[in-house]
Write a structure and sequence with these properties.
This protein is mostly helical and 85 residues long. It contains 4 helices and no strands.
């Protein structure tokens, strides 16, 4: 097992820690997940951009895909039954 040390701003660390805690993760697990996904995709597991038009384009494409191929349920109970399969 190796150790990874990084320097980041204290405020960013605290905000990230709070976010990960809300997701039931600690910082170490979140970083490991990021690294595993990066290796799996051989790329960043997200597309960094600050371009609102590109963000909307990607969002619209993902929504269209979900509407075309995604499942829908009449009730939460039906959803949970499907998840239990």
């Amino acid at each position: 097992m190796a150790t990874l040390n990084i320097r980041i701003e204290e405020n960013l660390k605290n905000k990230a820690q709070k976010t990960f805690n809300n997701l039931g993760l600690d910082m170490s697990t979140a970083v490991k997940m990021f690294l595993h996904q990066s290796v799996k995709e051989n790329a960043l597991p997200f597309h960094p951009t600050n371009n609102p038009k590109l963000i909307k384009k990607v969002w619209d494409r993902e929504v269209a895909e979900a509407l075309k191929n995604g499942k829908s349920y009449k009730s939460a109970q039906d959803l949970f039954k499907d998840l239990d399969k």
